[in-house]
Design brief:
Layout lengths: L13 E5 L3 H12 L3 E5 L13 E3 L6 H10 L2 E4 L6 H7 L4 E2 L3 H7 L2 H10 L7 E4 L2 H5 L8 E5 L9 E4 L2 H10 L5 E5 L3 E11 L5 E3 L3 E6 L2 E7 L8 H17 L4 E10 L4 E7 L9 H4 L4 H10 L11 E8 L15 H5 L4 E5 L10 E9 L2 H15 L1
Helix pairs in contact: 1-10, 3-4
The structure holds adenosine-5'-diphosphate (ADP) and magnesium ion.
């Protein structure tokens, strides 16, 4: 049974965040600047949000006592990672307002459900088939090769994926994944990748950010670029992407911040790749280059406050900072030259406070803003040179 929540939730109240990674940390900053107190649920001591939150509940994401505590302390709860158990969100919803809902998260955390959902929303996806048994690979249409086999659950940053050129290779990869449910999708000729971050409130109001153009290295987002001056020229593409994102959010009855990743194919057509039910790495530019950040919007949605403007007041280039930068060519550890980075006066440095640098681990990001994308690119190139 649905309980009534009084909205808007007044500043001074407690907000809950399931997950204490960097997205949870940046959520804390936004919530606290609006006067809220934040309790973070995360099993890890010293997690990035733990030291920033007003309270860290250190427990498993499905710990009933911890969920009870979080739900009764907080007026509203949100999450920062899609692999949160959907049942934990459903359980929290007995106590407080929860956005997004466990039902919405359950769809997007399973690639089989996600792809079927996007398709029935009328948005194209890559040709694919669900694989829950070896026979599904044997029967897969020929146009899925060469393809990518992706574990249906728990993948991120290219993990749980194998590029396969043949049926035999797909079978091998399926076995190597331990026979877990997967999707097999055709490898598409990508001209570009873009993502749309948007927020949708309890009153169905939506704001949609300008799409970011994303470059990945080794399956991890490396650079994300937003050019407000190009919106006019790319109007039809951007409108298509924004409309697809809105349709997906509407049909999911989604509340909160959501990101839809798209592929742009060689022929210019747009294909949806995946949905993240939370703020997204490609939306970090919104902190420094937009009127309201994606984290600010997350707070506004969950508290029932009006959404802020998604307008990009600056062009931006966002560079992810991975743990690799803490190691020199000989494998010795070093501290990156932050003063050198900040000599570029449009560089905004965000470090996540992670104690240990590991290769491939997201340690922070730098958003370089500019009046034009050319200016932002110029300083970003300088920053990249300093970081080596
Ligand atoms: P993750 O959950 O790790 O982000 P994605 O499905 O987004 O997984 O895949 C990661 C990256 O791999 C994509 O951003 C894209 O660069 C590449 N990729 C994924 N699927 C395809 C595909 N069907 N065709 C071509 N490239 C793909
Ligand atoms: Mg992705």
């Amino acid at each position: 049974t649905a309980i009534q929540h009084s909205m808007p939730v007044p500043p001074g109240s407690w907000l809950g965040m399931v997950g204490g990674g960097q997205l949870g940390r940046m959520f804390c900053h936004a919530a606290q600047s609006l006067g809220y107190k934040v309790a973070v649920l995360d099993p890890a001591a010293g997690c990035p949000a733990g030291g920033v939150a007003d309270r860290h509940i250190q427990a498993a994401y499905d710990d009933p006592t911890a969920l009870e505590l979080l739900g009764s302390l907080c007026a509203a709860v949100s999450t920062e990672f899609e692999n949160v158990p959907a049942d934990s969100l459903r359980r929290l919803a007995r106590h407080c307002a929860v956005s997004p809902s466990g039902d919405a998260v359950a769809v997007v955390q399973d690639r089989i459900l996600e792809k079927a959902f996007i398709t029935q929303a009328g948005v194209p996806v890559a040709p694919y088939c669900a694989v829950t048994d070896r026979s599904h690979i044997a029967q897969a249409p020929a146009n899925l090769f060469p393809g990518i086999l992706k574990a249906a659950r728990l993948g991120y940053d290219g993990k749980g994926q194998a590029r396969v050129t043949s049926r035999e290779a797909a079978l091998e990869a399926f076995d190597a994944f331990g026979g877990v449910p997967c999707v097999l999708e055709a490898m598409l000729p990508l001209a570009d990748e873009i993502s749309v971050v948007m927020a949708r409130g309890y009153d169905d109001a939506c704001v949609v950010y300008t799409p970011a153009h994303n470059e990945h290295r080794d399956g991890i987002l490396a650079v994300s670029t937003v050019d407000p001056a190009a919106v006019q020229a790319r109007q039809s593409l951007y409108a298509q992407a924004a409309q697809a994102a809105r349709r997906i959010a509407g049909q999911l009855d989604y509340r909160g911040v959501l990101c839809v990743e798209f592929f742009i194919l060689d022929d210019g057509s747009l294909v949806a790749n995946e949905i993240a039910p939370r703020p997204h790495n490609s939306g970090h530019h919104t902190i420094n280059a937009c009127v309201s950040s994606q984290f600010d919007q997350q707070v506004r949605v969950m508290t029932g406050l009006p959404l802020g403007s998604a307008h990009s007041h600056s062009a931006s280039v966002m560079l992810n900072i991975l743990g690799d930068l803490w190691f020199d060519a000989a494998g010795q550890t070093r501290e990156p030259d932050w003063a050198g980075v900040l000599r570029f006066d449009h560089a905004h440095l965000h470090l996540y406070g992670k104690a240990e640098a590991r290769k491939g681990r997201k340690m922070g990001h730098i958003t370089v803003t500019g009046a034009t994308l050319g200016q932002a690119r110029e300083q970003a190139a300088g920053v990249a040179r300093v970081l080596g």
